[in-house]
Design a protein that fits this description.
transcription, MTERF, nucleic acid binding, 27 helices, 0% strand
Length: 414
Protein backbone atom coordinates (compact mmCIF):
# COMPACT_ATOMS: atom_id res chain seq x y z
CA UNK A 1 0.00 0.00 0.00
CA UNK A 2 1.44 3.37 -1.05
CA UNK A 3 0.50 6.30 1.16
CA UNK A 4 0.97 9.85 -0.12
CA UNK A 5 3.64 12.01 1.42
CA UNK A 6 1.29 14.92 2.32
CA UNK A 7 -1.03 12.56 4.18
CA UNK A 8 1.78 11.12 6.27
CA UNK A 9 3.20 14.59 6.82
CA UNK A 10 -0.14 15.83 8.11
CA UNK A 11 -0.26 13.09 10.72
CA UNK A 12 3.33 13.67 11.67
CA UNK A 13 2.08 17.03 12.93
CA UNK A 14 0.46 14.94 15.67
CA UNK A 15 3.98 13.82 16.57
CA UNK A 16 3.30 10.35 15.19
CA UNK A 17 6.36 8.80 13.65
CA UNK A 18 6.18 7.42 10.10
CA UNK A 19 5.40 3.87 11.22
CA UNK A 20 2.60 5.03 13.55
CA UNK A 21 1.16 7.20 10.79
CA UNK A 22 1.27 4.35 8.27
CA UNK A 23 -0.42 1.99 10.74
CA UNK A 24 -3.16 4.53 11.35
CA UNK A 25 -3.75 4.98 7.61
CA UNK A 26 -3.86 1.23 7.05
CA UNK A 27 -6.54 0.86 9.74
CA UNK A 28 -8.45 3.95 8.58
CA UNK A 29 -7.80 4.47 4.86
CA UNK A 30 -10.42 7.23 4.72
CA UNK A 31 -7.86 9.52 6.39
CA UNK A 32 -5.68 9.44 3.26
CA UNK A 33 -8.54 10.87 1.23
CA UNK A 34 -8.94 13.85 3.54
CA UNK A 35 -7.27 17.08 2.43
CA UNK A 36 -4.15 17.67 4.56
CA UNK A 37 -5.35 21.21 5.23
CA UNK A 38 -8.57 19.81 6.70
CA UNK A 39 -6.60 17.54 9.04
CA UNK A 40 -4.35 20.41 10.10
CA UNK A 41 -7.38 22.61 10.71
CA UNK A 42 -8.95 19.96 12.97
CA UNK A 43 -5.68 19.55 14.89
CA UNK A 44 -5.55 23.31 15.47
CA UNK A 45 -9.18 23.28 16.66
CA UNK A 46 -8.39 20.54 19.19
CA UNK A 47 -5.35 22.43 20.38
CA UNK A 48 -7.45 25.60 20.78
CA UNK A 49 -9.48 23.92 23.54
CA UNK A 50 -6.39 22.93 25.50
CA UNK A 51 -5.63 19.48 24.09
CA UNK A 52 -1.85 19.09 24.15
CA UNK A 53 0.24 16.91 21.81
CA UNK A 54 0.36 13.89 24.10
CA UNK A 55 -3.39 13.96 24.71
CA UNK A 56 -4.00 14.44 21.01
CA UNK A 57 -2.01 11.32 20.19
CA UNK A 58 -4.06 9.31 22.70
CA UNK A 59 -7.35 10.63 21.37
CA UNK A 60 -6.48 9.97 17.73
CA UNK A 61 -5.19 6.51 18.55
CA UNK A 62 -8.51 5.60 20.15
CA UNK A 63 -10.88 7.63 17.97
CA UNK A 64 -9.25 8.61 14.69
CA UNK A 65 -12.67 9.66 13.37
CA UNK A 66 -12.36 12.91 15.32
CA UNK A 67 -9.99 14.09 12.59
CA UNK A 68 -12.77 13.89 10.02
CA UNK A 69 -16.17 14.01 11.77
CA UNK A 70 -17.99 17.19 10.68
CA UNK A 71 -20.09 17.09 13.88
CA UNK A 72 -17.03 17.79 15.99
CA UNK A 73 -16.31 21.21 14.48
CA UNK A 74 -19.30 23.07 16.01
CA UNK A 75 -18.75 21.37 19.35
CA UNK A 76 -15.09 22.44 19.50
CA UNK A 77 -16.07 26.00 18.62
CA UNK A 78 -18.66 25.99 21.40
CA UNK A 79 -16.18 24.53 23.90
CA UNK A 80 -13.60 27.16 22.95
CA UNK A 81 -16.00 30.11 23.16
CA UNK A 82 -18.38 29.16 25.99
CA UNK A 83 -16.80 26.51 28.21
CA UNK A 84 -14.01 28.53 29.79
CA UNK A 85 -12.33 26.54 32.52
CA UNK A 86 -13.27 23.12 31.16
CA UNK A 87 -10.30 20.93 32.04
CA UNK A 88 -8.47 19.40 29.04
CA UNK A 89 -8.34 16.05 30.85
CA UNK A 90 -12.14 16.08 31.14
CA UNK A 91 -12.46 16.96 27.48
CA UNK A 92 -10.02 14.21 26.52
CA UNK A 93 -12.11 11.61 28.38
CA UNK A 94 -15.22 12.85 26.61
CA UNK A 95 -13.63 12.69 23.16
CA UNK A 96 -12.17 9.22 23.68
CA UNK A 97 -15.36 7.69 25.11
CA UNK A 98 -18.00 9.35 22.94
CA UNK A 99 -18.60 9.05 19.22
CA UNK A 100 -18.50 12.51 17.59
CA UNK A 101 -22.12 12.21 16.41
CA UNK A 102 -23.28 12.22 20.03
CA UNK A 103 -21.51 15.50 20.77
CA UNK A 104 -23.86 17.55 18.61
CA UNK A 105 -26.47 17.99 21.36
CA UNK A 106 -24.13 19.28 24.04
CA UNK A 107 -24.26 22.91 22.97
CA UNK A 108 -28.08 23.01 23.01
CA UNK A 109 -28.28 21.43 26.46
CA UNK A 110 -25.59 23.59 28.00
CA UNK A 111 -27.19 26.66 26.43
CA UNK A 112 -30.44 25.66 28.10
CA UNK A 113 -28.66 25.86 31.47
CA UNK A 114 -27.58 29.41 30.67
CA UNK A 115 -31.12 30.30 29.62
CA UNK A 116 -32.25 29.13 33.05
CA UNK A 117 -29.77 31.33 34.89
CA UNK A 118 -26.53 29.36 35.23
CA UNK A 119 -23.74 31.97 34.83
CA UNK A 120 -21.70 31.46 31.68
CA UNK A 121 -18.43 31.74 33.59
CA UNK A 122 -19.49 28.77 35.73
CA UNK A 123 -20.18 26.37 32.85
CA UNK A 124 -16.63 25.02 32.64
CA UNK A 125 -16.61 24.36 36.39
CA UNK A 126 -19.99 22.66 36.15
CA UNK A 127 -18.98 20.38 33.29
CA UNK A 128 -15.77 19.44 35.09
CA UNK A 129 -17.87 17.80 37.80
CA UNK A 130 -20.64 16.05 35.89
CA UNK A 131 -20.85 12.98 33.70
CA UNK A 132 -20.94 14.98 30.45
CA UNK A 133 -21.91 12.11 28.19
CA UNK A 134 -24.73 11.00 30.47
CA UNK A 135 -26.11 14.47 31.23
CA UNK A 136 -25.56 16.33 27.96
CA UNK A 137 -25.35 13.61 25.29
CA UNK A 138 -27.54 10.68 26.24
CA UNK A 139 -30.24 12.44 28.26
CA UNK A 140 -33.09 13.81 26.12
CA UNK A 141 -33.40 17.58 26.21
CA UNK A 142 -36.93 17.37 27.61
CA UNK A 143 -35.66 15.26 30.54
CA UNK A 144 -32.96 17.82 31.30
CA UNK A 145 -35.63 20.52 31.17
CA UNK A 146 -37.74 18.60 33.70
CA UNK A 147 -34.81 18.32 36.08
CA UNK A 148 -34.10 22.03 35.78
CA UNK A 149 -37.72 22.95 36.50
CA UNK A 150 -37.76 20.63 39.52
CA UNK A 151 -34.50 21.99 40.93
CA UNK A 152 -35.73 25.55 40.54
CA UNK A 153 -37.70 24.92 43.72
CA UNK A 154 -34.39 24.58 45.57
CA UNK A 155 -32.16 27.67 45.26
CA UNK A 156 -31.43 27.24 41.58
CA UNK A 157 -28.90 27.92 40.02
CA UNK A 158 -26.68 28.17 43.09
CA UNK A 159 -27.59 24.58 43.90
CA UNK A 160 -25.95 23.07 40.81
CA UNK A 161 -23.07 25.53 40.75
CA UNK A 162 -22.14 24.37 44.26
CA UNK A 163 -22.93 20.70 43.59
CA UNK A 164 -22.87 20.02 39.82
CA UNK A 165 -23.06 16.25 40.33
CA UNK A 166 -26.75 16.68 41.18
CA UNK A 167 -27.34 16.83 37.43
CA UNK A 168 -26.11 13.23 37.17
CA UNK A 169 -29.11 12.02 39.17
CA UNK A 170 -32.32 10.63 37.77
CA UNK A 171 -35.32 12.84 38.46
CA UNK A 172 -37.94 10.21 39.29
CA UNK A 173 -35.82 7.45 40.82
CA UNK A 174 -33.43 9.60 42.83
CA UNK A 175 -34.13 13.33 43.17
CA UNK A 176 -37.87 13.28 43.87
CA UNK A 177 -37.79 10.45 46.46
CA UNK A 178 -34.92 12.09 48.35
CA UNK A 179 -36.60 15.48 48.47
CA UNK A 180 -39.88 13.89 49.53
CA UNK A 181 -38.12 12.05 52.36
CA UNK A 182 -36.51 15.24 53.68
CA UNK A 183 -39.80 17.11 53.41
CA UNK A 184 -41.57 14.35 55.34
CA UNK A 185 -38.84 14.42 57.97
CA UNK A 186 -39.50 18.14 58.31
CA UNK A 187 -43.17 17.55 59.00
CA UNK A 188 -44.29 17.79 55.39
CA UNK A 189 -42.79 21.25 54.95
CA UNK A 190 -41.13 21.38 51.53
CA UNK A 191 -39.93 24.94 52.20
CA UNK A 192 -38.04 23.69 55.24
CA UNK A 193 -36.59 20.85 53.16
CA UNK A 194 -35.56 23.41 50.53
CA UNK A 195 -33.79 25.46 53.22
CA UNK A 196 -31.94 22.34 54.35
CA UNK A 197 -30.91 21.40 50.82
CA UNK A 198 -29.76 24.96 50.14
CA UNK A 199 -27.40 24.72 53.12
CA UNK A 200 -25.87 21.47 51.87
CA UNK A 201 -26.73 20.51 48.26
CA UNK A 202 -24.68 17.33 48.71
CA UNK A 203 -27.62 15.94 50.72
CA UNK A 204 -29.28 15.09 47.42
CA UNK A 205 -26.44 12.65 46.76
CA UNK A 206 -27.53 10.43 49.67
CA UNK A 207 -29.99 7.61 49.04
CA UNK A 208 -33.30 7.34 50.85
CA UNK A 209 -31.98 4.15 52.44
CA UNK A 210 -29.03 6.11 53.83
CA UNK A 211 -31.35 8.72 55.34
CA UNK A 212 -33.57 6.02 56.84
CA UNK A 213 -30.63 4.28 58.51
CA UNK A 214 -29.63 7.54 60.21
CA UNK A 215 -33.20 8.23 61.20
CA UNK A 216 -33.46 4.81 62.84
CA UNK A 217 -30.26 5.46 64.77
CA UNK A 218 -31.52 8.73 66.22
CA UNK A 219 -34.89 7.21 67.01
CA UNK A 220 -33.05 4.56 69.02
CA UNK A 221 -31.34 7.38 70.94
CA UNK A 222 -34.76 8.79 71.78
CA UNK A 223 -34.91 11.74 69.40
CA UNK A 224 -38.02 12.46 67.37
CA UNK A 225 -38.03 12.95 63.61
CA UNK A 226 -38.71 16.65 64.18
CA UNK A 227 -35.73 16.97 66.52
CA UNK A 228 -33.41 15.29 64.03
CA UNK A 229 -34.61 17.69 61.34
CA UNK A 230 -33.90 20.67 63.61
CA UNK A 231 -30.37 19.40 64.23
CA UNK A 232 -29.93 18.91 60.47
CA UNK A 233 -30.97 22.51 59.82
CA UNK A 234 -28.15 23.61 62.11
CA UNK A 235 -25.68 21.01 60.85
CA UNK A 236 -26.72 19.26 57.61
CA UNK A 237 -23.56 17.12 57.71
CA UNK A 238 -25.17 15.14 60.51
CA UNK A 239 -26.25 12.71 57.77
CA UNK A 240 -22.68 12.16 56.56
CA UNK A 241 -21.21 11.11 59.91
CA UNK A 242 -20.49 7.39 60.36
CA UNK A 243 -22.92 5.80 62.78
CA UNK A 244 -20.48 3.08 63.79
CA UNK A 245 -17.25 5.07 64.08
CA UNK A 246 -18.53 8.37 65.45
CA UNK A 247 -22.21 8.75 66.22
CA UNK A 248 -22.47 5.69 68.45
CA UNK A 249 -19.39 6.44 70.62
CA UNK A 250 -20.20 10.17 70.82
CA UNK A 251 -23.74 9.56 72.00
CA UNK A 252 -22.54 6.93 74.50
CA UNK A 253 -20.16 9.48 76.04
CA UNK A 254 -23.02 11.95 76.52
CA UNK A 255 -25.12 9.23 78.14
CA UNK A 256 -22.25 8.35 80.48
CA UNK A 257 -22.23 12.02 81.48
CA UNK A 258 -25.85 11.70 82.57
CA UNK A 259 -27.58 13.20 79.54
CA UNK A 260 -31.00 11.95 78.47
CA UNK A 261 -32.54 12.26 75.00
CA UNK A 262 -33.78 15.81 75.65
CA UNK A 263 -30.31 16.87 76.83
CA UNK A 264 -28.67 15.24 73.81
CA UNK A 265 -31.00 17.10 71.47
CA UNK A 266 -30.26 20.46 73.11
CA UNK A 267 -26.54 19.66 73.14
CA UNK A 268 -26.41 18.81 69.43
CA UNK A 269 -28.36 21.91 68.42
CA UNK A 270 -25.72 24.02 70.22
CA UNK A 271 -22.63 21.93 69.42
CA UNK A 272 -23.31 19.75 66.36
CA UNK A 273 -19.62 19.65 65.36
CA UNK A 274 -19.10 17.35 68.34
CA UNK A 275 -20.25 14.34 66.31
CA UNK A 276 -17.71 14.95 63.52
CA UNK A 277 -14.52 15.83 65.38
CA UNK A 278 -11.74 13.29 65.74
CA UNK A 279 -11.55 11.82 69.23
CA UNK A 280 -7.82 11.14 69.10
CA UNK A 281 -6.70 14.44 67.57
CA UNK A 282 -9.31 16.77 69.03
CA UNK A 283 -11.82 15.73 71.66
CA UNK A 284 -9.44 13.72 73.83
CA UNK A 285 -7.04 16.67 74.08
CA UNK A 286 -9.84 19.03 75.03
CA UNK A 287 -11.10 16.62 77.65
CA UNK A 288 -7.59 16.61 79.12
CA UNK A 289 -7.61 20.43 79.29
CA UNK A 290 -11.05 20.50 80.90
CA UNK A 291 -10.19 17.90 83.51
CA UNK A 292 -6.94 19.77 84.21
CA UNK A 293 -8.83 22.93 85.21
CA UNK A 294 -11.22 21.00 87.44
CA UNK A 295 -14.12 19.46 85.54
CA UNK A 296 -15.12 16.06 86.88
CA UNK A 297 -15.27 12.92 84.76
CA UNK A 298 -18.67 11.71 83.55
CA UNK A 299 -20.62 14.79 84.58
CA UNK A 300 -23.12 16.88 82.68
CA UNK A 301 -20.94 19.93 83.28
CA UNK A 302 -18.04 18.21 81.52
CA UNK A 303 -20.25 17.29 78.57
CA UNK A 304 -21.52 20.86 78.18
CA UNK A 305 -17.96 22.18 78.45
CA UNK A 306 -16.84 19.83 75.66
CA UNK A 307 -19.70 21.16 73.54
CA UNK A 308 -18.58 24.72 74.18
CA UNK A 309 -15.10 23.99 72.82
CA UNK A 310 -16.08 22.30 69.56
CA UNK A 311 -15.59 25.44 67.47
CA UNK A 312 -12.03 26.09 68.57
CA UNK A 313 -8.77 24.27 67.93
CA UNK A 314 -6.79 22.46 70.59
CA UNK A 315 -3.92 24.88 69.99
CA UNK A 316 -6.11 27.95 70.49
CA UNK A 317 -7.65 26.43 73.62
CA UNK A 318 -4.19 25.77 75.05
CA UNK A 319 -3.16 29.36 74.33
CA UNK A 320 -6.31 30.70 75.98
CA UNK A 321 -5.53 28.71 79.13
CA UNK A 322 -1.93 29.92 78.99
CA UNK A 323 -3.12 33.52 78.68
CA UNK A 324 -5.33 33.23 81.75
CA UNK A 325 -2.56 31.60 83.75
CA UNK A 326 -0.09 34.33 82.68
CA UNK A 327 -2.40 36.91 84.26
CA UNK A 328 -2.35 35.10 87.57
CA UNK A 329 -5.61 33.23 87.29
CA UNK A 330 -5.79 29.75 88.73
CA UNK A 331 -7.43 26.59 87.42
CA UNK A 332 -10.30 27.23 89.82
CA UNK A 333 -10.69 30.75 88.40
CA UNK A 334 -10.83 29.47 84.83
CA UNK A 335 -13.24 26.72 85.87
CA UNK A 336 -15.54 29.26 87.48
CA UNK A 337 -15.45 31.51 84.42
CA UNK A 338 -16.18 28.70 82.00
CA UNK A 339 -19.14 27.53 84.07
CA UNK A 340 -20.59 31.04 84.03
CA UNK A 341 -19.75 31.68 80.39
CA UNK A 342 -18.83 28.42 78.59
CA UNK A 343 -17.80 30.19 75.38
CA UNK A 344 -14.82 31.75 77.15
CA UNK A 345 -12.61 28.78 76.29
CA UNK A 346 -13.29 28.98 72.56
CA UNK A 347 -12.58 32.65 71.93
CA UNK A 348 -9.57 33.52 69.80
CA UNK A 349 -6.55 33.87 72.08
CA UNK A 350 -5.18 36.94 70.25
CA UNK A 351 -8.53 38.72 70.58
CA UNK A 352 -8.75 37.83 74.30
CA UNK A 353 -5.26 39.15 74.90
CA UNK A 354 -6.17 42.55 73.42
CA UNK A 355 -9.33 42.75 75.54
CA UNK A 356 -7.48 41.88 78.72
CA UNK A 357 -4.76 44.41 77.91
CA UNK A 358 -7.45 47.07 77.40
CA UNK A 359 -9.20 46.09 80.64
CA UNK A 360 -6.05 46.15 82.76
CA UNK A 361 -3.90 48.74 81.01
CA UNK A 362 -6.36 51.32 79.64
CA UNK A 363 -9.42 50.90 81.87
CA UNK A 364 -7.13 50.29 84.89
CA UNK A 365 -9.34 47.51 86.20
CA UNK A 366 -8.39 44.42 88.13
CA UNK A 367 -8.18 41.13 86.22
CA UNK A 368 -10.46 39.64 88.84
CA UNK A 369 -13.39 41.54 87.36
CA UNK A 370 -13.60 39.08 84.49
CA UNK A 371 -14.25 36.36 87.08
CA UNK A 372 -17.42 38.20 88.03
CA UNK A 373 -18.38 39.04 84.45
CA UNK A 374 -16.55 36.71 82.04
CA UNK A 375 -19.00 37.67 79.28
CA UNK A 376 -16.85 40.81 78.96
CA UNK A 377 -14.46 38.72 76.87
CA UNK A 378 -17.18 37.95 74.33
CA UNK A 379 -17.95 41.53 73.31
CA UNK A 380 -16.21 43.17 70.35
CA UNK A 381 -13.35 45.37 71.50
CA UNK A 382 -13.70 48.29 69.08
CA UNK A 383 -17.42 48.25 68.36
CA UNK A 384 -18.67 47.72 71.90
CA UNK A 385 -16.12 47.80 74.71
CA UNK A 386 -14.01 50.81 73.68
CA UNK A 387 -16.92 52.77 72.25
CA UNK A 388 -19.16 52.42 75.30
CA UNK A 389 -16.33 52.95 77.75
CA UNK A 390 -15.34 56.26 76.14
CA UNK A 391 -18.95 57.46 76.18
CA UNK A 392 -19.72 56.55 79.80
CA UNK A 393 -16.48 57.34 81.54
CA UNK A 394 -17.09 61.04 81.02
CA UNK A 395 -20.38 60.67 82.90
CA UNK A 396 -19.74 57.96 85.49
CA UNK A 397 -15.96 57.83 85.75
CA UNK A 398 -13.78 54.76 85.55
CA UNK A 399 -15.45 52.57 88.15
CA UNK A 400 -18.64 51.63 86.37
CA UNK A 401 -19.83 47.99 86.37
CA UNK A 402 -18.66 46.01 83.37
CA UNK A 403 -22.01 44.24 83.32
CA UNK A 404 -24.01 47.46 83.16
CA UNK A 405 -21.61 48.97 80.66
CA UNK A 406 -21.87 46.15 78.15
CA UNK A 407 -24.96 44.02 78.66
CA UNK A 408 -27.71 46.66 78.33
CA UNK A 409 -29.34 46.92 74.92
CA UNK A 410 -28.28 49.56 72.43
CA UNK A 411 -31.61 51.37 72.80
CA UNK A 412 -31.33 51.60 76.58
CA UNK A 413 -27.62 52.49 76.50
CA UNK A 414 -28.08 55.47 74.22
Amino acid sequence: VIISGPAIWSLQELHLDEKEAEALFLQHPELELAPPESLRSRVLALQSVGIDDLSLRRIVARRPEILLAPELGPFLEFARDELKGLKPAKLERLLTTTHPKFLTGIAARVTRLMEHGVPGEKLGHLLNHVHIRKVFCERPLKDLEEIILFLKRFSWPDLVVRRPMILNLDLHDQLIPRVEFLAELGGGDEAAAAALIAKLPALLSYTVEHFKSHLEFWRSVGLSDEELFKIALVYPNIFSVSKERKLGPRVEFLRQCGMDAEDIFRFLVKAPLYVSLSFKDNLSKKLTFLVKIGYKHRTRELAWAVGATTRTSCENMQRVLGLFFSHGLSCDDVLGMSKKHPQVLQYNHASLEKKMEFLIGYMERDVGEILVFPAFLGYKLDDRIKKRYEIKREVRGKGMSLNKLLSVSTDRFY
